[in-house]
Amino acid sequence: MKPLPSRRRKTQGFSLGLFALCLATARSLQSQGVSLYIPHPTINATVKEDILLSVDYSCHGVPTIEWKYTSSWGAQKIVEWKPGTQANISQSHKDRVCTFDNGSIQLFSVGVRDSGYYIITVTEHLGSSQFGTIVLHVSEILYEDLHFVAVFLAFLAAVAAVLISLMWVCNKCAYKFQRKRRHKLKESTTEEIELQDVEC
After folding, report:
1. Which of 32, 113, 36 is nearest to 67 (CA)?
2. Is residue 78 a contact partner of residue 114, using CB atoms and an 8 Å limit?
3. Are 92 and 101 spatial neighbours (Cβ–Cβ below 8 Å)?
4. DSSP label of 19
5. Residue 144: what pLDDT?
6. Dihedral, CA of residue 167, residue 172, residue 173 and residue 179, to nearest 10
7. Contact 40, 132 (CB under 8 A)
8. Which residue stretches of the chain have pLDDT < 70?
9. Among its keywords, does the record have Glycoprotein (predicted)?
10. Domains of the chain by residue range
11. 130, 34 contact by CB (below 8 A)
12. Are 90 and 76 in contact (CB under 8 A)?
């Protein structure tokens, strides 16, 4: 009759050990959770450019991916989806966003108003989540510079054309003046020769 309690203790010890092992495994899995990698946290773009907000994540199971946008213009949700399913894109970004299974999104034909902070949140089914931010700056400086350069070059070309025309006119005038002078010199020398002949 006495051996039974020791067997019961062994069974209880085995059950507790198994429970502790399961708990440790669950904790280690949960501690690993979601990892998120953002290769380019800052992106500079110009108006009408298509840009890629590139990220990569790893987690257990299929996560929920959500992108939000905040700036001085306001804050709004852009898109939410689970990889392999259809994305729920907000009305403000319809036909302007393309999603990828690695969590990245592409924005088409960006404008100055698209400048701001893009926040991605990856949430796995166990409840752990990870978020990251990409700063996008969209400017028109390149186009303004090209416009300025084009106007400046056109102005220089016009000035060069005017200067060339003036040089051509001055050259013609100088040539005519020299011809008249030569002609007068010829006439005066001819008159002198004639006078000398008459005196002789």
Report:
1. 36
2. no
3. no
4. H
5. 57
6. 140
7. no
8. 1-32, 141-146, 191-200
9. yes
10. 33-139, 141-200
11. yes
12. yes
